[in-house]
Specification:
- The chain is an alpha/beta fold.
- It is built from 19 helices and 31 strands.
- The strands form seven sheets. The protein has a seven-stranded parallel sheet with strand order 11-12-10-13-14-9-15, sandwiched between helices. Strands 16-26-25-17-24-23 form a six-stranded parallel sheet, with helices on both faces.
- α14 links the parallel β23 and β24.
- The protein is globular and about 85 Å long.
- The two termini are 50 Å apart.
- The chain binds zinc ion (2 copies).
């Protein structure tokens, strides 16, 4: 008898032992069905042992080992183990979250085969088939010419009969060898970056590819992918958002005819996601492109890892296993002994600091790839002098008008959706607040609702003040819907397109809008950060930025970094083609160093001042952080749990500091009160050692209705 040590999706940081008649090291990484309480669960075998501490009477027998998935490799399990230890979650939870949903349950997955071929018996049967068996004959005749994908064969019932009778068998889909179409001449900077990265293809080396917008980072990725594929390896490309996958997938498919490019995102149908995962695991997918969850794609021949827009906060998972896909991608490349490329126009300060210290190799690209294309001119509009009327300064209005006259497009950036952030009663001071969150209800006039942007609660707009009955309620502040109204009144003949998560919610809307923009059917684009990310708008020659100052005074020390990156990205939309671009930023603080750095297009000096401030203040990356969060129906209960957690914290000397419990900046969300304790350490190792011990004691605390979790390297407070 053998003992299977199984990782299960159970909130306990341990493996579970089961007895198996027969098992070997070869079963490590396989799915197995096991009894748990009175349920049946599926887990992954991570060890096969000869003995167990579980008393014989309590040891239960494992169910069948499921053969629907090849075993996960040791390299993959090492990644999962690292994520579990680093982010302080049970290994079973990490593995379960990484697997596609169809491979999480105890029932074996049976996917329909992707392609079929005819057998010798099938060829013989072509001679003897009854004349009226039209459907079966059609399939056999089609396959007599060679294997075909399932989609090319009609009639499910006839196919099933042929498979049952052994006349047709399922096979791997036929495919041509991958090629690469060069069709582009690299600039000297691009060629230098490609050479540096491809020289490292047989070893681990992390690169930070810092290139100004339009410097052609994507071409660098494509040429490096070509080199990896040429060596028979697979490439992994991560992007921060689902929205960014179609255009990159299209570029990959066009430039690599014959290659299998697989997109992995949470938006896929369950079978599709499982099928693509298995294609990656079988080594059949050449390139896996996806959002953060794709960092766990099984890639037995991994040769290159790329993380595009590496600064983007979307790479950090904000619930469940709170991992950073960017950081795991670096670890993964290390385990696989392959290079990893982190690309951005505005790198995260963490990555920048690593490049400064020599841990990452910095590859800078300072030229735009298209000949003659220049960086846009950035101008600051002092709204203390040129007062904004309904959000629009005279300078910005004039600039938009001149674009309309010349038949060019303008983009107005306001990172706040809805009509106004709050509805106010001038008589008594009532404000529209969410009853479930410590937040305002946002006024949406397009569909006449008040809406909470945190929990999604909706209410009709009240006819009068709920407190004093005053009927004259005021919309306070400005969102995209309100600015749309202003622009429509100011430029009545212009075709205006509002682009935010409200107007793009319906499936296919954003793609349709991009089509309309490309076709020149819109003259003024107005929108939120959706517009700032990675899309090309060649006819846009003006970018106007409205109301960005709020982030300068935010309590979150990461706010300036995010604002700089956002404005830099959105400014980069201007003048990408031949026409020079202009960026107008409306601000009350034109002397602010952040805006001055934008005017000079200088990321490096901005990053240096930010890093200096963080060093003085003792913020990351100069210290390492984790938070213990607790949420409950009431704040006192959440805080009481944290007090007990502090009392139970292990001895830590001076290496780790623990702070007092405080409410989170959004203290109440969806009816639950939220508080947290911050842990800080100069040494990552000291913090990890402390967290490992602390989290074991936390699992032993009685929590009642309190839900808690640890967040390592948090970005939300
Ligand atoms: Zn009132
Ligand atoms: Zn709410």
């Amino acid at each position: 008898m053998k003992i299977l040590r199984v990782a299960l999706d159970v909130p306990l940081p341990k493996l579970f032992d089961y007895a198996a008649e027969e098992a070997s090291e070869g079963d490590i990484g396989c799915r197995v069905a096991v009894p748990f309480g009175n349920r049946s669960l599926a887990g992954v075998i991570v060890e096969v042992a000869a003995a167990t501490d579980v008393p014989a009477g309590k040891l239960r027998a494992a169910g069948p080992i499921l053969d629907d998935m090849p075993p996960l490799t040791r390299e993959w399990l090492a990644l999962a183990r690292f994520a579990a230890e680093y982010y302080q979650r049970p290994l079973g939870e990490v593995i379960h979250a990484a697997l596609p949903p169809r491979l999480r349950g105890p029932r074996p997955l049976r996917l329909p085969p992707a392609a079929y071929a005819i057998t010798v018996a099938g060829r013989a049967a072509l001679e003897t088939l009854r004349p009226r068996a039209h459907a079966r004959r059609a399939i056999l005749e089609r396959l007599a010419g060679g294997p075909a994908p399932a989609a090319a064969l009609a009639s499910g019932p006839a196919l099933r009969v042929l498979v049952r009778d052994g006349l047709v068998i399922a096979v791997a889909p036929p495919r041509a060898a991958a090629q690469f179409l060069e069709e582009y001449v690299l600039t000297p900077e691009q060629a230098w970056a490609v050479a540096a990265i491809t020289r490292a293809l047989d070893r681990y080396e992390p690169f930070l590819l810092a290139g100004v917008t339009s410097s052609g980072k994507t071409e660098v990725y494509l040429y490096c992918v070509a080199q990896a594929l040429g060596r028979g390896r697979q490439a992994l490309l991560l992007v921060p958002e689902i929205n960014l996958t179609p255009q990159l997938a299209e570029a990959l498919e066009r430039r690599f005819p014959g290659a299998r490019v697989v997109t992995l995102t949470s938006a896929l149908a369950a079978n599709e996601r499982a099928e693509r995962w298995l294609a990656a695991q079988a080594g059949d997918a050449d390139v896996v492109l996806g959002t953060r969850l794709a960092v766990f794609a099984p890639l037995p021949n991994l040769g290159l890892v790329v993380v595009d827009e590496e600064h983007d906060a979307s790479f950090k998972q904000q619930d469940g296993v709170r991992y950073s896909a960017r950081d795991l991608a670096v670890y993964r490349a290390h385990v696989a002994n392959v290079p990893v490329v982190l690309g951005s126009a505005t790198p995260s300060l963490e990555s920048w600091a690593h490049a400064r210290s020599g841990r990452y190799r910095l590859l800078e690209m300072s030229e735009r790839a298209r000949p003659g294309s220049r960086l846009p001119e950035v101008r600051l509009v002092d709204t203390g002098v040129d007062r904004a009327i309904d959000g629009l300064s005279a300078a910005l209005a004039d600039a938009i008008q001149s674009r309309l006259d010349r038949g060019e497009q303008s983009l107005v950036f306001l990172n706040r959706r809805g009509y106004a952030p709050v509805l106010v009663c001038g008589a008594c001071g009532w404000m529209s607040g969410c009853p479930r969150c410590a937040a305002h209800l946002v006024l949406h006039t397009a569909d006449r609702r008040l809406r909470c942007h945190h929990c999604g609660r909706e209410e009709p707009i009240p006819r009068h003040c709920p407190t004093c009955g005053n009927v004259d309620l005021t919309a306070f502040g400005r969102g995209t819907q309100r600015l749309e109204e202003t622009l429509a009144a100011r430029f009545p003949r212009a075709r205006l397109l509002r682009i935010d998560s409200d107007s793009t919610r319906a499936k296919g809307r954003w793609a349709a809008m991009r089509g309309a923009i490309a076709a020149g059917d819109a003259q003024i684009l107005l929108g939120t950060q959706i517009l700032a990310k990675g899309h090309d708008f060649p006819a846009v020659t003006l970018v106007g930025v409205v109301n960005a100052d709020a982030a300068l005074v935010a309590a979150d020390y990461r706010a300036p970094e995010r604002l700089f990156s956002q404005l830099y990205q959105v400014g980069g939309r201007a003048g990408r083609a031949q026409a020079p671009g202009e960026v107008l930023i409306q601000t009350r603080f034109p002397q602010h160093p952040l805006y001055q750095a934008l005017v000079r297009h200088q990321f490096a000096p901005f990053a240096e001042t930010q890093l200096a401030e963080r060093r003085d203040a003792g913020f990351p990356p100069f210290v390492h952080e984790a938070v213990l969060r607790a949420e409950s129906d009431t704040m006192p209960r959440a805080v009481a749990f944290l007090e007990r957690a502090l009392a139970a914290a292990p001895e830590r000397g001076e290496a780790v500091s623990l702070f007092d419990p405080v409410p989170m900046s959004l203290a109440r969300l969806a009816g639950r009160s939220r508080a947290q304790v911050l842990a800080q350490a100069r040494s990552r190792r000291a913090l990890q050692a402390f967290l490992g011990e602390w989290s074991r004691t936390l699992y032993g605390l009685r929590a009642g209705d309190v839900r808690w979790h640890l967040d390592v390297d948090p970005i939300e407070f």
